From TrEMBL:
Its main location: membrane. SUPFAM superfamilies: Fumarate reductase respiratory complex transmembrane subunits (SSF81343). It is found in: Membrane. InterPro entries: SQR/QFR_C/D (IPR034804), SuccDH_FuR_B_TM-su (IPR000701). Pfam families: Sdh_cyt (PF01127). Keywords: Heme, Iron, Membrane, Metal-binding, Transmembrane, Transmembrane helix. This is Succinate dehydrogenase hydrophobic membrane anchor subunit. The keyword tRNA processing does not apply. The chain crosses the membrane at residues 20-46, 66-90, 102-125. The lineage of its organism: Bacteria, Bacillati, Actinomycetota, Actinomycetes, Micrococcales.
C-alpha cells in the first residue's frame, strides 16, 4: 500500500450545507407535525367541527395575526422541507452535472415563488372584496 491510500481524509473548510440540510429536515419535520395537528384540531374538532368550515370561518381565522403566522410558518416549513427533499433526490439520482444544477435551480425557484405568493395571500387576504349584505360575511365585513 502506498502512503497516499493511508493518508487521512482532508476536511473541507466552510459551512457543511449537507449537514445543515439534514438537521433542518429533522427539526422542520417535528415542527411540521405539531403545526399540522394543531391546524387539523382547530379546524376539524373544535366547535362545530367540519360543518363549520366555510369561507366565513377562514376569513375569521385570517383576521387574527396568530393564525396568519401559524399558517405562514406551516407554509414556509412545508415548502422548504419539500424542496430540500426534492433537492436531495435530484443530487442522489441525476448524474449529469448540468441537468442536476438546472433541476436544483428549478426546485428552488418554484419553492421561492410559492412561498412569496402564499405569504402574500395570507397577509393580504380581504374577505370583504365583492361583499354583498345578507350573506355569510355580515359579521366580518359590516
Amino acid at each position: 500500500m502506498s502512503a497516499e491510500t493511508l493518508a487521512p481524509a482532508r476536511r473541507r473548510s466552510g459551512v457543511n450545507l449537507e449537514k445543515w440540510g439534514w438537521v433542518f429536515m429533522r427539526v422542520s419535520g417535528v415542527v411540521l407535525v405539531v403545526l399540522i395537528f394543531g391546524h387539523l384540531i382547530s379546524n376539524l374538532l373544535v366547535g362545530d367541527g367540519i360543518h363549520a368550515l366555510d369561507f366565513a370561518f377562514i376569513a375569521g381565522k385570517f383576521a387574527t395575526p396568530f393564525w396568519q403566522w401559524w399558517d405562514v410558518l406551516m407554509l414556509w416549513l412545508a415548502l422548504i422541507h419539500g424542496a430540500n427533499g426534492m433537492r436531495t433526490i435530484v443530487n442522489d439520482y441525476v448524474i449529469n452535472p448540468r441537468a442536476r444544477k438546472a433541476l436544483v435551480w428549478a426546485i428552488g425557484l418554484a419553492a421561492a415563488l410559492l412561498i412569496v405568493l402564499g405569504t402574500l395571500v395570507v397577509f393580504t387576504f380581504d374577505p370583504c372584496l365583492g361583499f354583498e349584505p345578507g350573506g355569510a360575511l355580515d359579521e366580518v365585513c359590516s
